[in-house]
Amino acid sequence: MASESTIAAGNPIPVNVITGFLGSGKTTLLQRLLRSPGMSRTVVLINELGEIGLDHLLVERVDEALVLLQNGCICCSIRDDLKSALRGLLSRREREQIPAFDRVVIETTGLADPGPVLYTLLGEPVVRHSFRLGNVVTTVDALNADLHLSRNPEGVKQVAAADRLVITKTDLADAAQIAAVRDMLSRTNPSAEILDAAQIGFDADRVLVEQTRDLTPLMRFRPHVGEPEPAADSTRGLQHNASVASLSLALDEPLDWTAFGIWLSLLLHRHGDNVLRVKGILRVQDAAAPVFINAVQHIVHPPQHLERWPTADQRSRIVFITRGIEHALLARSLAAFSRNRVGAPTPEAA
Amino acid sequence: MCALCGVFLTEAHWTDSSPSPPGSSVRTRRHERQHRVALANRILKHYGFKISDWQGNAYLLSAATGQTAVLPNVAAVWPAAEQLRKRTLDPLDPDLIEALERD
User: Fold this and answer.
1) Strands across the sheet with B58-63, in order?
2) How many domains does chain A have?
3) Residue A345 is assigned to a structural domain of this protein
4) Which of A14, A100, B79, B91 is deepest in the core (most CB within 10 A)?
């Protein structure tokens, strides 16, 4: 929950995005989170007012209206509905037409590309000044993950954009099904914590975690360079999106931040449509504390300076989730430009 | 903020951010810009371009053919260069990677 100190004047209000494919349990999860005591000052923005059946003071409906920019880049489209809704909330709060609030939760439609939601938070001047992204939570149905992810590119983008993945309907699935979905998700997005909806209870703090305080998955992954492993039967959902795979790199030497920024900006310029996510914690030259980076397709969040390393392992660790990109070439390109040795397989960190 | 569009959405582009927390940088802003120019030119020279600092608040992109463009940040250089020469710049281009490895 946002503490009083984090919601003082001048601090942007956190916005959490709950996404997930149709019928994957977004609304059920939201209903449970809103029963958490710390969620009483939360505004909820949803698409279907009738579906949610919430006894909550502040529920607003939005219409998912996209405003395409002239360059035609879909992920960098302003969600006009969100812009209006968020600006309207500020205005109404100022006029005391609604109570003060310290968090906004946006539930997207099942077919929503998360890119425009994030772009609106970062790119719309008034919104950017008053709100910030808390995290992205994606629900995945244990029974139908295969179907959802195999047929819908939006479903894969939702998984890639996630900071927390919540497996739902686990009470209806057997242990093997749940394990298979967990395995598929951890291989697709190793930077996200994976939770079982049945074990969350009403504890919103476990789900709506600040991105920069949610670094355990980044510190835990096993670095590797290689092409996507052949999908087993249990993970055939991604066979249909077989070109989607993650690359987890560890860099032994401190990075030149300027060199990394130049390289990443060119990578996203040329291949941003197929770089679904970049998330990492960087050890940079001339700085004692690490830098947190986070990009979803072409949308790059401003890099954040962290106060300290979360573990004793102080190597840079970066996850790339890509579609149809040769990982060995990607790692070699980064190494060549940053003059850094990357990807040496190492034992899994504690 | 958008790496594809090069749209100038914030006061400072993310590639211009310092590796150090505010107030603790070991490089001056001028030194940082010179460093950025030198690094970007490692890539650009492969494609027949170079950039230089333009009055401390923009970058001047120059092609070997004499064409020029003034850009607000490094991310805006890539689409401008492609526009000038009708050629793509690709960090995964094996020829570029080989050239960088020889550098």
Assistant:
1) B49-54, B58-63, B68-71
2) 2
3) no
4) B91
